[in-house]
Amino acid sequence: MNRYLQYGLIAAVAGIAGIAGYFTSQIGDSAGSSTTSTASAGTTEALLALALPDTEGHMQPLAQWRGKVIVANFWATWCPPCRREIPDFSAASRSFGDAPVQFVGLSIDSLDKVKAFKAEFDVPYPLLIASADVLALGPGFGNAAQGLPFTVIIDRQGVARHVKVGTLNQDELERKIRPLIDDKS
Length: 185
What we know:
Blueprint: H1 3-31, E1 34-36, H2 41-48, E2 51-53, E3 59-61, E4 69-75, H3 80-95, E5 101-108, H4 111-121, E6 127-130, E7 150-154, E8 160-165, H5 170-182
Helix pairs in contact: 3-5
């Protein structure tokens, strides 16, 4: 396949995903589409089974954070709503300090762009480099359009408790996470 055609296809797919994410975000923001998850245990296990490279090239298995509340945020540097919510995720991550909470960004993007973004926005949690294939988990979490951003909050027992397609702010994040920190059911 011609190199220019490949680049064109990649740009087209990225543009479509960005537009879908934007409109999904707008719908989610106005409708308050945060939900208690109906994700199957299999979908959550598939997410926790991922091992993806971080910005330093080290493989990071998501399973290493079992036993903590995991806030998995699917995003990309080219996604305007994603860029808008990351400062709130960073602030929420910092506010939990030593609590058993782990934020992790699953970026559908290139390593160089994610590294630059991490440095520019001083993101305090791991940003992992994922392929577009990782978005295939989206429908299992109720994100049939596979729009960005979307966030899955997994409790300390490994159960997806909240899924939000669209942006989350710091207050929303903290309200959803706090009850899960001490819940050991």
